């Protein structure tokens, strides 16, 4: 079932979501435990800030994607629900609290991401490094995945993060080349690919990862070209998910992809050489992240 064009032009479809995008309301003891811990430690998660549809499931499984460097982004991507504007000062204790949360939850695999902080000289790279190091000290059994911004192309900033020793370096392309000016103002397609290429050159034991959200107006050929571009920089892991409009102030959904189309893209991606492709309507970058890492089968400490 090859996908259609994805919708040419600027028209958009009905806001009614298909049945396969429905999720259960969050709840249960584990969900409440994670919510309480985050509140007690004054921590943010991208799960909540970006209104992820899988928050209930992930919190219920005692997993969360920690959002560092505050909760206000200096960029205003037109698909993203995270608040943008002028960020507050850095919190000197944030890394310690994240590490304590990882220890308390007993996480096997932890994902750390951040807002973009173009106001900082290194884009927040030093805070990423501090957080990685402190997690290793408190919870050495945990594998660590970082989902980083582009650091405005700074190789020095990226190096700070990589030297701290994460197991997976994730940076999302999010969309196809043609749509970058519309979807990701302030970001550059080539710069994001370059970041992934630099990370790959850093060391053979590091896994690299990226993700796309579909339904913003891309066509099938553009999706495949973007996947090929990622394989061109030896990206190991790929996530593909459906764009869901956070509000009427964000870009409209041009197409809802059918689960069979996501299955076809998964097969095509694996044929291109990705070590693992997580593809489905509700997939997000850190959805089942630990399982994705183990499925890729590169590092023993990820598999442990």
User: Any guess at the CATH architecture?
Assistant: Alpha-Beta Barrel
Number of domains: 1
Q: What is the third-level CATH name, the topology?
A: TIM Barrel
Order of helices and strands: HEHHEHEHEHEHHEHEHEHH
pLDDT < 50 stretches: 4-10, 298-304
> What's the rounded overall pLDDT mean?
83
> How helical, in percent, are the residues?
25-40%
Main β-sheet, spatial strand arrangement:
1-2-3-4-5-6-7-8
Morphology: globular
Using only CA atoms, what is the Rg?
Answer: 18 Å
Can you tell me the CATH superfamily?
Aldolase class I
Quaternary structure: single chain
Percent range for β-strand residues: 5-15%
Please characterize this protein's 3D structure.
The chain is α/β, with parallel strands linked by helices. The chain has a single domain, classed as TIM Barrel (Alpha-Beta Barrel). Helix content is 38%, strand content 12%. It has 12 helices and 8 strands. It has helices at residues 29-40, 46-49, 55-60, 94-105, 125-138, 155-163, 180-183, 189-202, 220-232, 259-272, 289-296, 300-303; strands at residues 44-45, 65-68, 109-114, 143-147, 168-170, 207-214, 237-242, 276-279. It has an 8-stranded mixed sheet, with helices on both faces. Helix 4 (94-105) runs parallel beside helix 5, helix 5 runs parallel beside helix 6 and helix 9 (220-232) packs parallel to helix 10. It starts with 28 loop residues before the first helix and ends with a helix. Mean pLDDT is 83; it is low at 4-10 and 298-304.
